[in-house]
Amino acid sequence: MQAVVLDGVGKQYRLGQVDVPALTDIGFEIRAQRFTVLSGPSGSGKTTLLNLIGGIDRPDSGRVLIDGQDLDALDDDALSDFRARRIGFIFQNFNLLPVLTAFENVEYPLLLARVPAAARRERVRELLDAVGLADKAGNLPNQLSGGQRQRVAIARALAARPTLVLADEPTANLDSHTGEAIIALMRRIQREQQATFVFSSHDPAVLAEADDAVHIRDGAITAIERRDGVMA
Ligand SMILES: Nc1ncnc2c1ncn2[C@@H]1O[C@H](COP(=O)(O)OP(=O)(O)OP(=O)(O)O)[C@@H](O)[C@H]1O
């Protein structure tokens, strides 16, 4: 089963008078309920690709389909609604709201999804427990370590039970020991929730955990590695 299909996707950025190609004719499929890593050097186009998959940005050419839904067929309101219900995001810089506690940060997407208060509390407690932060619920982000902040961000990304979780270099700002613990945690949650995870990373520890790896260079795919042995 395919969770994500990219078909002839291209994206360019306008810099002054010139268009700089960031992605050219990207076509591949991401398997559902797998852990896929987008791997490539700095500037190869990983963040741009994740933003297109997540509907944060739109391609200049080609199509992105999530569970069969063509994102281009959705207007901006429908797209943000689709994102809120179906997709969880984890960022390199955690992107927690600094004035909200760990509990409130995780609760935030549930408020947007209009989940009733009692169900929200239960879900947030369950998630903070799952990421090992039950005792830090009342802490603000600046009262947490980097690894703890990223664990809050993971809990927040999973709160609304998305089927697709996208993470942009989630271990880039963590020391290697903390980064490995975060990957193990995400791997466990991915298996438990049967969600599809797509990460961008050039961290070998992240790559080693992947089911599938998509290698990108200069905005184009150079290889797709399926860990069940098939090489495309
Ligand atoms: N807003 C922008 N305006 C102009 N050019 C951009 C913009 N964002 C990205 N680019 C260019 O597009 C290309 C791809 O960038 P992207 O951020 O997707 O790469 P990346 O693989 O995620 O890099 P990194 O690992 O350093 O985050 C790069 O050449 C970059 O300079």
Q: What is the C-level CATH assignment of the domain at 34-56 and 73-210?
A: Alpha Beta
Q: Architecture of the domain at 34-56 and 73-210 in CATH?
A: 3-Layer(aba) Sandwich
Biggest sheet record:
6 strands, mixed
What is the β-strand count?
Answer: 10
Strand content: 25-35%
Mean pLDDT: 92
Distance between the termini: 17 Å
- What gyration radius follows from the Cα positions, in whole Å? 18 Å
Oligomer type: single chain
Task: Name the strands of the widest sheet in spatial order.
Answer: 6-7-8-3-9-10
Overall geometry comes to: globular
SSE run: EEEHEEHEHHHEHEHEE
- Which small compounds were modeled alongside the protein? adenosine-5'-triphosphate
Domain ABC transporter: 4-232
Keywords: ATP-binding, Cell membrane, Membrane, Nucleotide-binding, Transport
Protein name: ABC transporter ATP-binding protein
Organism: Chitiniphilus shinanonensis
